[in-house]
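Person: I keep going back and forth on a fold encoding question. Show me how you would write down a chain together with its backbone fold. Please set it down just below, with no commentary around it:
Helper:
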Amino acid sequence: RLCFGFRSYWGDNGGLPNFGYPLSEEFDERNQPPPAGDGQIHTVQYFERARFEYHPEYQGTKYETLLGLLGTEYLQIHPAPADAVARQNPSTPPADPTAPPTQAQSLHAVPGFNAFLAGDGSPAAIAFNQKTIDMVKAAGFEWVHFQVSWAQIEQNGAGIYDPSSLDNITSQTSRNGIKLLVSVVGPTPGWAGGSVSIPSNTAQFRDLMRFLSGRYKGKVQAWEIWNEQNLASNSGGRVDVGPYVELLKAAHEGVKAGDSSAIVLFGALTPNGLDRPDLAVADDLYLQRAYEYSNGKLSDYFDALGAHPGSNDNSPDQWWPGNPGTDGWDNDNSFYFRRIEDLRAIMVRWGDSDKQIWLTEFGWTTANDAPGYEYGAAISEQLQAQYLVRAFEIGRTEWPWVGPMFVWNLNYSIITSASDEKYPWAVLRGDWSPRPAYDALKAMPK
């Protein structure tokens, strides 16, 4: 039965489709200590897809009933299998403090940009790319992230590759000392289905990744497998962790066969608080279910976790529920930069404390004309600059487990109109002149 004051919240916020049926009566429960919780005792009730938490100090406000961090709450009552956390055994010798840093340690919080690079090899494309590379290096950055679709590389048939675009880009970036993270995404080629669904023929995708990693060994340092696959629109209309885990396994095998030193990233999930496979599944829930699907073997299929933290109109120091924003987009932790800490908690619980999280896209949009980005009106150019620099400071000083951090974005303002949603996220203007954010990133400690 619905208990306490939770009935009205349940009914006013989607009811059965959103939260499911109650799994418990109301009872008192102590939260985990920060950062996962507040360490206090609260009246709670569990539902199939949520945990309600009562806060009398907020009586009469929208914060009276808060939602728990589902991934964390689930792990409290469903511990990870013992074999999944075996690596945490204290009998394992500690790392030698005098040894040189590992590759992951040396990549701690290094800055990068998401940038558009042209691949047609024309004089105009070469000049555009060189200008982009020069702006990357002038800011003191040396990493760039971009996407390439499977259909673009293998459109003419299985095993018939056309890497000319990537050849042109990687030759130029390599000559200029730029390190690359490349995301391989949908759609699939027409002969393989021609859709944005997670590919079912994992052997063909494994062959693709073996070809790519071998061809670009030394030029592409890391490969991200798919992008925001917890969105139904990026998963063929329905989110399902199983096909993605199988794809990731095959991709990891392929990448390592072509270049054993290349880093394989679990594709970054989009931050959200839903559990609607027909629309989206929360990033923390998706990650937890991916571990469960493989009984912890997921750890063998990736070297680092890609992630897209929230931002909206919230500062990097705010989070839900302990220090929420006040202007909307504030009542779920997926709206916040520190959402990454929820994902980190899940990784640690499953024995992956030694893996990094790479922020493959993060940033703050200023005023944005595109529908769904209304929160950008609250972010001035000065705030955008301030928040980006603070985010890197958090990465350097508070998150020893964070890897490269890629600002979204450097230069999409050059190739889009002001009405495009990507335009106001850029740190360069449409004429290549720097916005305050670019200057601030250039000046920050590296």
